[in-house]
Structure formats: structure tokens, C-alpha cells
């Protein structure tokens, strides 16, 4: 029998990886913003056209890349963020998989401009479907600009599967909120179709929340602070009277990364025990800091889920910290006659 197994060419492998990493324009926004943060930027600009279907651009003032690194950044499994498997458990960066730029370049037109602080000129690289179409020196400010145009240009099925501009923009705004909330120490500006949608100056956490969700939010926030050996909690929960029918403003960050956790969400809901009207949900903006050794982030390509070593302990600490904060604010249970 003839041998039938073949190694897939890189551009095919990249396109397959892209299927996991890039679901929609908002995924590109997330990956580019995270790279800008990992580069140590304190000012980041996000530019969107047509809900990201024609353009997603992120411009940062971070450390930039050398000529060689600029080219390597588009290779799969190429990363400056980890060196070995042990590093996965002491992560201080958002990225580590080294596949975002390779994936994005496999399914879009990408233009990179980047310059390191000590260089006079920078580098530009244009990629189309995993191929370099031009590479040159360029005059550009310190930092990196990545433009992603015509997403899914070579995968019509994915392109057709995209939702309306309104829906895709909503996803982008959600991603932007998550990243901006996790990093109040970074200034963000967001232009949507040429209009300034958000301008968030460097600030503290409370101000960042208020700048995003409006001045009225300020009076709704109850501070939560707790520090134990295994978990540090800092942030805010919403006063019960402001609870809403939708689950909109519920944010957990673990080591500065937005995380979805039904289990920890339940810890909070149960801390509100008796304080919420049936069918309503309190807002929360909580930063959890844990030893990176006690979590595994590498369980999903988009890194929005985490495996905690000891979820039960975190649940108990979180629940009691939130309960304590709500109690301090003398919030009495509501008498809910509808129940
Ligand atoms: P990862 O972030 O997982 O390392 P990416 O594909 O997102 O993988 O990026 C590959 C590499 O390119 C990064 O490790 C980093 O060295 C470099 N890079 C990407 N974006 C930027 C940026 N905005 N500024 C500086 N370096 C960047
Ligand atoms: Mg990355």
C-alpha cells in the first residue's frame, strides 16, 4: 500500500489554526489589543471600519520589533513571550501561543509597521493569505501599527457567516470594554467609521468604569477588597437596587485577563442572597490576583476560560468578601412580594 500521510503546507495549517483563534472581527480586535499591551504601550488606538469587516487597525506606542522579529512575528508558534513549557505557569503576558498574527495573516490582508525606540526608521511588511507581498523600511513613530483588511477574503463561507454590522460592532465593543477595564493604566482611543467612539484617559479603576459606563455608575459601586494567601480581590460590585434583568456588566479579571466563569459568577450571586429581586443580576467589576502557578490558561485558544487548582477555596473567599462589602454598606434585604 502506498503511504498517504502528508504534512500540510504552512498556509493550510495557519488557516486551520485561524478557524479557532479568529471567529469574527472582534477576535482580531482582542488579539491586536493584547499584543499592544504585551508590548508595554501606555497609549493604544483602535480604528474600525464597517464593524471590522473592512478594517481593524491597532496602533500602539510600545517597544516595537526589530527587522527580523517583524518578519518572524507572522510565523506560527513564533513568540517572544515564553521559552519553555514551564513558562506557561508563570505567565505575565496576554499572549504565549504565538499563533495570532500567523492566523490573522492567513485569512486577511495585513499591513504591519513597527519601529523600536532607538532606531531612526522602522519596517513595514504586507501579507496576503500567509504570503509576504512586500517588505521595506518606513518612517513611522515608535511602536507598532497592525492593519487587518478584508477579513476572511479567502474563506467566503466564513465571510458570509458574519452577522450584521450592528451585531459585529457589539462584539467589538464588548472586547474593547474587557481590555480597557483590565488596564486603566493605559489610555485608549477608539474610532468607529471615522468617529471617536471612546476616549479613555489613563486613570484609576473606578474612573475607568465610569468613563466607559457613564457618570451615573459611580454611585452604584461598592468597593470590594480582600487579600488572603491564595487570592487577592479588588474591585467593585453593584448596589442591589441597581441590579438589572440582563447580565450585561459582569466582569471577572484573573491576573488582568477577562475570564468567563459560571462557577465564580454563582459565588457572587449567592453573596447577594436575598438582596436581589427575582430574575435580576447585579453588576460587578472584580480583579482577582492569583499565583500563576495555580491556574492553567492554556485550555482554550481564545483564553477566556481558566482551570483553577482550587476553585472551591476561591469560591468561598470571593463569596465572603462580597458579602462583607455589601454588609458594610448596610444594605438591607428587599422584601420581594413577587416571589
Ligand atoms: P503571541 O502574542 O502569543 O506571542 P502573536 O502571533 O500575537 O503571538 O505575536 C507574535 C509575536 O510578535 C509576539 O510574541 C511579539 O514578540 C510580536 N508582536 C506582536 N504584536 C506586537 C506589537 N504590537 N508590538 C511589539 N511586538 C509585537
Ligand atoms: Mg498575541
From TrEMBL:
This is DNA mismatch repair protein MutL. It comes from the Bacteria. The keyword DNA repair applies. The chain holds residues 1 to 339 of 616 of the full protein. GO terms for biological process: mismatch repair. Belongs to the DNA mismatch repair MutL/HexB family. Keywords: DNA damage, DNA repair. The gene is mutL. Residues 209-327 form the DNA mismatch repair protein S5 domain. One of its GO terms (cellular component) is mismatch repair complex. GO terms for molecular function: ATP binding; ATP hydrolysis activity; ATP-dependent DNA damage sensor activity; mismatched DNA binding. It comes from Algibacter lectus. This protein is involved in the repair of mismatches in DNA. It is required for dam-dependent methyl-directed DNA mismatch repair. May act as a 'molecular matchmaker', a protein that promotes the formation of a stable complex between two or more DNA-binding proteins in an ATP-dependent manner without itself being part of a final effector complex. Transmembrane segments: none annotated. The keyword Metal-binding does not apply.
Amino acid at each position: 500500500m502506498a503511504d498517504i500521510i502528508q504534512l500540510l503546507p504552512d498556509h493550510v495549517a495557519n488557516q486551520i489554526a485561524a478557524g479557532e483563534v479568529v471567529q469574527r472581527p472582534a477576535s482580531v480586535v482582542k488579539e491586536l489589543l493584547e499584543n499592544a499591551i504585551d508590548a508595554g504601550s501606555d497609549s493604544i488606538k483602535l480604528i474600525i471600519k464597517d464593524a471590522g469587516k473592512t478594517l481593524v487597525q491597532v496602533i500602539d506606542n510600545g517597544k516595537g520589533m526589530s527587522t527580523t522579529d517583524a518578519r518572524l512575528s507572522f510565523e506560527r508558534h513564533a513568540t517572544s513571550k515564553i521559552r519553555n513549557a514551564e513558562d506557561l505557569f508563570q505567565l505575565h503576558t496576554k499572549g504565549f501561543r504565538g499563533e495570532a498574527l500567523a492566523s490573522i495573516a492567513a485569512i486577511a490582508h495585513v499591513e504591519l509597521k513597527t519601529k523600536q525606540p532607538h532606531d531612526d526608521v522602522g519596517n513595514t511588511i504586507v501579507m496576503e493569505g500567509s504570503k509576504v507581498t512586500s517588505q521595506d523600511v518606513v518612517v513611522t513613530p515608535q511602536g507598532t501599527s497592525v492593519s487587518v483588511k478584508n477579513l476572511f477574503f479567502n474563506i467566503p463561507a466564513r465571510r458570509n457567516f458574519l452577522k450584521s454590522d450592528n451585531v459585529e460592532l457589539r462584539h467589538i465593543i464588548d472586547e474593547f470594554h474587557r481590555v480597557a477595564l483590565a488596564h486603566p493604566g493605559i489610555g485608549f482611543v477608539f474610532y468607529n467609521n471615522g468617529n471617536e467612539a471612546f476616549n479613555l484617559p489613563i486613570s484609576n479603576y473606578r474612573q475607568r468604569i465610569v468613563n466607559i459606563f457613564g457618570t451615573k455608575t459611580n454611585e452604584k459601586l461598592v468597593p470590594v477588597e480582600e487579600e488572603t494567601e491564595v487570592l487577592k480581590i479588588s474591585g467593585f460590585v453593584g448596589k442591589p437596587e441597581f441590579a438589572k434583568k440582563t447580565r450585561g456588566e459582569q466582569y471577572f479579571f484573573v491576573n488582568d485577563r477577562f475570564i468567563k466563569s459560571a462557577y465564580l459568577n454563582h459565588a457572587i450571586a449567592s453573596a447577594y442572597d436575598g438582596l436581589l429581586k427575582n430574575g435580576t443580576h447585579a453588576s460587578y467589576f472584580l480583579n482577582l490576583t492569583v499565583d500563576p502557578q495555580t491556574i492553567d490558561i492554556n485550555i482554550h485558544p481564545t483564553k477566556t476560560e481558566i482551570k483553577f487548582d482550587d476553585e472551591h477555596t476561591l469560591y468561598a473567599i470571593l463569596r465572603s468578601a462580597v458579602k462583607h462589602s455589601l454588609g458594610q454598606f448596610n444594605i438591607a434585604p428587599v422584601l420581594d412580594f413577587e416571589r
